[in-house]
Amino acid sequence: xxxxxxxxxVSVVFVCAALLLFFVSLQQRDFEHSERLSxxxxxxxxxxxxxxxxxxxxxxxxxxxxxxxxx
Length: 71
Hints:
By secondary structure, the chain is an all-alpha fold. It has helices at 2-27, 34-39, 47-50, 54-59. The longest helix has 26 residues, at 2-27. The termini are far apart.
């Protein structure tokens, strides 16, 4: 029966810690851009960014150039 008191205390501590971390993240405004980030994989790639440049084609580069992420 003594373990029940410990379990309730530990559960209350976990709930308080979760609420505290939630309010800290709200204060830091971490959730403001979550909708934009969730839609990012659905964006169509920009064909101008992925096109090979004349210098890279002349050099025979087999790897594509790194694409900058712009939103």
